[in-house]
Specification:
It is a single chain. This protein has about 130 residues and is α+β, with helices and mostly antiparallel strands. The protein has two domains: about 40 residues, no CATH class; about 55 residues. The chain has six helices and two strands. It has a two-stranded antiparallel sheet with strand order 1-2. A hairpin with a 5-residue loop joins β1 and β2. The chain starts with a helix and ends in a 22-residue tail after the last helix. The relative contact order is 0.07.
């Protein structure tokens, strides 16, 4: 968590949005905190490289980015009936108008077959373990 935010909001670490989803492998010195050793997030460029490598390895020719996953996440929540306000909060949008962009995809999908991946597991079933 950036040092400046730690000074402004004593409850920053209590919310999921501030947890490291992609923590760096090692600790590094934080110049804003007198050189204190801290774990930071992986740089966004590294995540982009990982996605690009996975897409290439899978032989996918369509452009895929981290935003593609974000868009898919929001769309799948809408399809499953999650309310727009909850999706807005999950995505961190300041305005529900921004979140409403995802509704056009759901309207375009109506009447089409659902993804077969949606039916692979029953509620509560764990996906198979890959070794």
């Amino acid at each position: 968590m950036p040092h400046a935010l730690a000074l402004r909001d004593c409850h920053v670490g209590d919310r999921w949005a501030w947890y490291c989803v992609f923590p760096a492998d090692g600790l590094s010195r934080d110049p804003r905190a007198a050189g204190e050793l801290r774990r930071h997030h992986v740089l966004p460029a590294a995540v982009s490289r990982w996605i690009a490598a996975a897409v290439k390895s899978a032989g996918i020719e369509k452009r895929v980015t981290a935003h593609t996953f974000r868009h898919s996440f929001a769309t799948h929540l809408l399809v499953r009936g999650v309310d727009l306000r909850s999706i807005q909060e999950a995505l961190g949008h300041a305005s529900v108008k921004t979140t409403e962009i995802y509704t056009h995809v759901v309207h375009a999908m109506s009447g089409r077959a659902a993804s077969p991946l949606d039916d692979l597991f029953d509620e509560g079933d764990a996906p198979p373990q890959l070794h």
